[in-house]
Specification:
alpha/beta, Rossmann fold, eight-stranded mixed sheet, 10 helices, oxidoreductase activity, NAD(P)-bd_dom_sf, SDR_fam, Retinol dehydrogenase 11, oxidoreductase
Length: 308
Amino acid sequence: MYLLYTILAALLSFLGIKWMKRRRYCMDVKRLDGKTVLITGGNSGVGKETAVALALRGARVIIACRDEDRARKAVREIKNRSHSMNVLFMEVDLANMRSIREFCKSFLRKEKRLDILINNAGVPSVLDWTDDNFSMCFGVNHLGHFLLTNLLLPRLKESAPSRVITLTCSSYKYQKLDFQDLNYNLFPFFTYCRSKLANIYFTQELARITEGKGVTAYAVHPGYVQSNWTCHYSFLYRLLMKVIMFMFFVPCEAGAQTVVHCAVSDEVSAHSGGYFSDCKATSLKPYAKDSGVARKLWEASERLVKVP
């Protein structure tokens, strides 16, 4: 009898975990033929699954990554899975502002359209510095995408209606920004949380300044996904997190669904500047909706990356 209770408890626990991990899937079947999509960090994780999903819908998909070998391998996989040959790679290092500027010049010279920009690339909680002496999380997760989006904004306006989707995380709620120390790099997890809060403010201010210009913006929390973000850490930590992710995190394909939803759904246009999770608009903590802070961060970011 004890064994039966043990098996039953294990089964109920397993079913409970499966229920907690369930995610909504994007049910919109809209095609993207003739559209150009740019995805940063599209060579792995949620970015790669998003690339597959949008290529399946007929989009021209460009993945922008730092590692050429991994990117070319990802391009082959995306092509095979989507049965689309309209997938390509362009090199960019979001931890280097010069690389971002060169990438944008090349993109604007080669590509006549940009319908959907997906700011997907990001670094986890690491204490490191970019080539321009910004903390790695703030420099890549926020400032790199801030500069990239601003430099590509003219093409987004020309291709209107267009969209900018920036991946964030629900961990934003554990920190607030300190304008006396935006380059905060003391506790790794707090640094990451601040960068994700910056993504939300960035989306809100981008939506405000592009209102009426055919460009809409969305911040997306993909959920906690089974990606390869642990590659920056020790073997034992990676092993532990693999077990935890298997039990509680969702597959990358499920994590990509809200990104795809914001890329294709006509319903989201009424929520420009909004925060999305599980394929629906979701409320934020009150301090994360402060338009004054969003504008102040935008102006500070312009000075930091020298955008006129």
